[in-house]
Amino acid sequence: MSWIQIKADITPNIAEAMEESLLAAGASAVTMEDAHDQPILEPERGTTPLWEKTIITGLFSADEDTEQIKTIAHNVFCGLSSETFPDCKIEILENQDWTRKWMEHFEPIHIGSRLWICPSWRDVPDNNAVNLMLDPGLAFGTGTHPTTFLCLKWLDAASLENKDIIDYGCGSGILGIAGLLLGAKNVIAVDNDPQALLATKDNANRNNITEDLIKAYLPDETPQEPADIVIANILAKPLYELKSRIGALCKTNGQVILSGILEHQAAELSEFYSDTFTMAPIIIEDGWARLTGTKKAP
In the prediction, which pLDDT does 100 show? Predict the structure, then answer.
């Protein structure tokens, strides 16, 4: 089966109306992407900012009538916005598994001295290494982003035997699973996205990790028993908001690892956590930071 792709250059003020019009015309999916390489590094919570110049794309079955699609989209748009309906470009796409196209470019990653992150559909490069077989699905975390890489590097160098880990914002489960493969006793994985919890369970099973060793929870269902190590690879803003909770989940003399932090945010966030943790020097990689600290006694 082939697909029709209808694309238009838009500005943020018409994004919602254009998205609604494409969906009303029968789009199977609507996506938006940056047209001019303008970064949005960390949005405000509860907002979905768009680039000044955005490309919106609607995906339709190839047997749809393109003129009818454009007519419906135009009429719906005009009912939602006083702006001019944008020019649309139509492309024919050959059938392929779009959600898996990126798999062609996901290579095994060597981290530290022991650990390899290996796509589950490729052969491992070193049978004697600690090989984490990964298929992230729709969840964040492959090891390629500096924030995840920094956390994995810490885990590879740490002594994890008999340690309990809480992975707060687990995504694909990569950090908690790596911890278990590197010697940790058990893991509590936490995420507000149910898809992440499913991905974590699937990847644990893929690595022959039994359900009693890693348990996945939504935040409000997380057990309150503190752990030896708490990892939170999220963003600076939620790390500010979650400080009390992260502190409560970490044992006295336990370790905290924080990432998802831009370099310019790191010093202030480290200071913010310093009343609860004795913070170590900041580690930077490609403009991103990792903070680590030891929980102080009450």
Answer: 54
Q: What is the pLDDT of residues 70-87, one digit of tens each?
A: 999 999 999 999 999 999
161 and 253 fall within a common domain: yes
Q: Which residues have C-beta within 8 Å of that of residue 164, sequence separation ≥ 6? A: 184, 185, 186, 187, 188, 227, 228, 229
CA distance 187 to 151: 15
CATH of residue 76: 3.30.70.120
Domains in the chain, number:
2
Sign of the CA dihedral running 182, 187, 190, 193: positive
What pLDDT is attached to residue 46?
42
* Residue 81 belongs to domain spanning: 3-95
Q: What is the average pLDDT across 166-195?
A: 95
User: Across residues 88-94, what is the average pLDDT?
Assistant: 78
Q: CA angle, corner 293, sides to 174 and 222, nearest 5?
A: 50
Assigned domain for 62 exists: yes
